[in-house]
Inverse folding.
């Protein structure tokens, strides 16, 4: 996890995560202090168990950069618990679809004569609204179709970085990255004859050319090797 320390922001993709075991260990990396994640309430004895992060389990590693969690209707169980806990603690921005809504903990109980039943025995309760998300799901902060969630999160990150850019070179580089994302989401179909009108090398050494029916650009300010597909306004 240490290789993530110098990142400007982090995206965790849970769109196809159906759950798993406890989230405590993984969540602990995203907080400096011990933090209340959620309460687990037993439906049998009505006991309440508070679940917290454990900073001592991360070897003093704290990943405190902006965090974005991608969700879909396939995000379930422990993955939902992670998304809900990060959202409730204002630690992450949730981007995508509302999650499945499968929050209750289930166990296998013998019924006798060889029969068993899988029955919920506990439910998690959010620290934000003191409710669980069974059959409701975790609502995203930034709603988006699951297929577009990654691009939406990336664009949000880049726009934040753009507002913090310290000079024009940084601003142009980030603006190019935003334009590139938008171009990938909005394919434009133009004829080869129309595209050829834009071919050439212009001020600053920016070169436009056509390849495989697409108008592409090389920008020397980005090292001259990065290639961008142009987006029509």
């Amino acid at each position: 996890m240490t290789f993530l320390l110098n990142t400007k922001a982090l995206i965790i993709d849970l769109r196809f995560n159906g759950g798993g075991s406890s989230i405590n260990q993984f969540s602990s990396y995203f907080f400096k202090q011990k933090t209340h994640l959620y309460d687990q309430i037993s439906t049998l004895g009505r006991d309440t168990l508070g679940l917290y992060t454990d900073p001592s389990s991360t070897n003093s590693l704290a990943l405190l950069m902006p965090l974005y969690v991608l969700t879909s209707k396939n995000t379930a169980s422990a993955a939902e618990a992670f998304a809900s806990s990060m959202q409730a603690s204002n630690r992450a921005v949730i981007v995508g679809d509302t999650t499945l809504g499968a929050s209750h903990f289930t166990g296998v109980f013998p019924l006798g004569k060889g029969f068993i039943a899988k029955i919920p025995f506990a439910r998690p309760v959010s620290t934000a609204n003191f409710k669980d998300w069974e059959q409701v799901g975790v609502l995203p902060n930034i709603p988006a179709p699951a297929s577009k969630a990654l691009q939406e999160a990336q664009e949000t990150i880049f726009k934040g970085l753009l507002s913090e850019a310290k000079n024009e070179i940084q601003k142009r580089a980030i603006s190019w990255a935003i334009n590139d994302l938008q171009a990938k989401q909005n394919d434009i179909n133009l004829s080869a004859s129309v595209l050829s009108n834009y071919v050439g090398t212009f001020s600053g050494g920016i070169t436009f050319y056509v390849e495989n029916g697409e108008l592409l650009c090389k920008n020397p300010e980005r090292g001259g090797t990065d290639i961008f597909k142009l987006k029509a306004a």
